[in-house]
Amino acid sequence: MFDRYEGGEQAILVNVDFPNESAREDVEELALLVSSAGVRTLDVVSTSRRAPDAKLFIGSGKTQEIADLVQGSKADIVIFNHRLSPSQERNLEKVFQCRVLDRTGLILDIFAQRARTHEGKLQVELAQLRHISTRLIRGWTHLERQKGGIGLRGPGETQLETDRRLLRARIKSILARLAKVEKQREQGRRARKRAEIPTLALVGYTNAGKSTLFNRITDSTVYAADQLFATLDPTLRKIELKDVGPVILADTVGFIRHLPHDLVAAFKATLQETRDADLLLHVMDISDERQEDNQRQVDAVLTEIDAAETPQLLICNKIDRLDEHTARIDYDDEGVPQRVWLSAQTGEGCELLLQALEERLARQMVVEHLRLPPEEGKLRSQLYQLDCVEAEQILENGDMLVSVRMPAVEWQRLLKNYAGRLTGFAESGNELAS
After folding, report:
1. With contact defined as beta carbons under 8 Å apart, do 403 and 367 qualify?
2. CA gap 32, 61 in Å, rounded
3. Which residues are annotated as a binding site for Mg(2+)?
4. Which of 197, 343, 367, 373 is the most buried (most CB within 10 A)?
């Protein structure tokens, strides 16, 4: 059995064009994925087939051509832009005499590099374990000569069963930990719902500029880079919107075409923030010529995680890369914002995004003018804490004339807390000069 290389710094990429549109992958995207993984591309081999070969995925002639290329260029790894079966990987490694990685394995490797939080590392490990559980046998091919019958059972089966048992135990342990994390996240979501705080989730194709936009409007320092899957771990921040109040904004992992199912399953707790959001901010790289296809891929993933029915606001990002661009808001026939054109990098149009969010989320506002006696200082203090006081005037007898503007929900909560006393303080028609 050949020595399996641990390194992966230099790679040969392989892409196959199939007649079926759904089976095709983008070569440029593969190059970006490889670059994000920290691997240098030596050469790209493209070929066409009507259907994958059951044994080698590609034809025997092309396989030998790549094997000669590997030997001549001293490549460490061959990366396929498609999903390979365990047997195909094993057969190709025998011919190439180096490691073979498919698209799913490459994405998992990038996720393993990017995960920073404990939760993110657990999610990536779970996806990796599920992926390699079907590939355990290839490391023990020299022990695969067992046959049924007494005296003919070799140690290979025992080793494989041990590995599978250890894998199952580790997966069970990770699932238990992630279930605890999901329970904690669910408690946070329930608390936000009780407080009636809207939740917004940034979604979009990977490298569309979500984290840059997140940092721009929240004054955060979330890691953002011009590379695929720069963000894995969800980040929540609170922002204040006029006539809306506090809003929770969530930065989430980027999507990609043919996102591995193992990843979707592993990142269930993370993607739950997307599914439970009140509004999705779908960020698109408007300068990317593939943006329409990318948008369809994002919608497909949203459907897969049961978030397709959540309202969306489209964010056309990176307008600074277009020859002619204007920051603007596009409205529908009913005057509801549907698209915002901006540049998260330069900040152009970001104030329009906040305006569009206020228009989409604005709640019914209540304007009241209250006459509070001196002994209601506690109520006056609470009104200032709610940041709803627009003007105030102290009368000679010590009474306080206070003009307030707040969401109807908060007004009703005050009425309930003060057992209707607020209505007795109302001074209808006496608006104060600010």
Report:
1. yes
2. 28
3. 211, 231
4. 343
Higher pLDDT, 418 or 152: 418
pLDDT band at 319 (very low <50, low <70, confident <90, very high): very high
56's tokens: 């080698």
Pick from 344, 363, 382: which residue ends a domain? 363
Give a yes or no: residue 319 inside a domain.
yes
Domain check: are 316 and 231 in the same one?
yes
Residue ranges for the known binding site for GTP are: 204-211, 229-233, 251-254, 317-320, 343-345
Q: Return the minimum-mean-pLDDT range out of 25-34, 124-133, 266-275, 351-360.
A: 266-275
208 and 335 in a single domain? The answer is yes
> In whole angstroms, what is the distance from residue 103 CA to residue 292 CA?
22
Residue finishing a domain among 70, 101, 132: 101
Q: Are 378 and 274 contained in the same domain? A: no
Helices (H), 229-290: 261-266, 268-275
What residues does 237 pair with on adjacent strands?
Answer: 249
For the annotated binding site, the residues are 204-211, 229-233, 251-254, 317-320, 343-345
